[in-house]
Amino acid sequence: MRAAVLTAYNSPLLVDELPDPEPGPGEVLVRVMASGVNPLDIKIRRGEAPHAQLPPPAVLGIDMAGVVEAVGPRVDRFTVGDEVFGMTGGVGGLQGSLAELAAVDARLIAHKPRTLSMAQAAALPLGFITSWEGLVDRAGVGTGQQVLIHGGAGGVGFLAVQLALARGAQVYATGSTSSQAVIRAAGAVPIDYTATTVDEYVAAHTGGEGFDVVADNVGGATLDASFTAVKRYTGHVVSALGWGTHSLAPLSFRGAAYSGVFTLMPLLTGRGRDHHGEIVAEAAALADSGRLAPRLHPTTFPLDAVNDAHTAVESGSATGKVVVEPNV
């Protein structure tokens, strides 16, 4: 098979021939039709994500959608010809999806949404799983709650907005001036963080009480702002980027809660993989009900142009999720 190989950190990916993988017990062999490119993939390529544990040489690509070509022992949920998707590799020493074929743990995948293309399906897993683990598993978002999503036009935030709306919440999302239309199109009330302070938008939208749930997809100063935007006593801040040094005083003085999300843990440890499969199945159900769709960059990339795909993400020129199609 052909695959894009990371031969050294901070170097272009090399498209090369590798032996075809074979599915082991509990695995299926998937012909990869689409591989979503995440900002984390860029950090891994540059050697800036030691938590992902993927030293070169390695095949990158965390998200994928494709067709089952073979089924290993002890797999009964999938058969040859099934269209599937999931967050399946590219970290922790697991082969990623920037390849024509991948042997993946069947616990991590679900049947692809019928109403979405392969490219759309491959754009969902990491962002949706991150959003589900924060909003549903940790914060239990439900009907009538006021939810603030930071970075609502981003790859994770755009999906988080749709998930919170599907759960019955009133959703608000921060973004730059240029992203207000995208946020509004996703169904949230847009907040231009460059033109209004935290205190001002908390006062305007919650009467000064604070949001029931605040989801941080930006980190740094935005996480600090989350601690002052959350509701007293019952509020809950969730973040997938709770790294670095932060003062918990604003959160503590509000009597609110904080939860961290580490989406890679099942891939790195093997624990919780069944739940990731369950979450992407929920994504498929929401997509097929018309309540979930990613925002794609208008151009997809063949495997030979994988470095152009990475450049689009790295440069910030992408206008939606970038997807590589290894078998095109």
TrEMBL record:
Domain Enoyl reductase (ER), residue spans: 8-324
UniProt protein name: Alcohol dehydrogenase GroES domain protein
Source organism per UniProt: Mycolicibacterium vanbaalenii (strain DSM 7251 / JCM 13017 / BCRC 16820 / KCTC 9966 / NRRL B-24157 / PYR-1)
Top-level taxon in the UniProt lineage: Bacteria
Keyword Nuclease: no
Family matches, as InterPro entries: ADH-like_N (IPR013154), ER (IPR020843), GroES-like_sf (IPR011032), NAD(P)-bd_dom_sf (IPR036291), Zinc-ADH_QOR/CCCR (IPR051603)
GO molecular function: oxidoreductase activity
Listed SUPFAM superfamilies: GroES-like, NAD(P)-binding Rossmann-fold domains
Entry-linked Pfam families: ADH_N, ADH_zinc_N_2
UniProt keyword annotation of NADP present: yes
Keywords in alphabetical order: NADP
